[in-house]
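Slide 14.
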Amino acid sequence: MTEKVMPEKKACRSCDAPIYWVHIVKKDGKPGRMPFDVEPAPNGTHRLVGRMGTFNNKPVMDLHATFVPFPEREEMIKAGVRLRLSHFATCPDAEQHRRGS
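Slide 15: predicted structure.
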């Protein structure tokens, strides 16, 4: 039987909400990581896709986020795609984590 591999959940260090750290492509085209809420949201803006890999000879799943423009969001939601929000949009303490503020 194949072991089911799930992405690793973490906790926000200020509000303790469950989050995923997700790979993104920044506006400047460089790679980065960003926290996303674990639970899908009806007003979600990003689709998370898991990609399998290995770490220390164990299977791992990395999550990658893609921004979904508004017209496509409605269609994806109707099709059952579960979109998520960046945790920066929902964390009550988000301002203390922003860079340059």
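Speaker note: The beta strands are 10-11, 18-25, 31-37, 46-55, 58-67.
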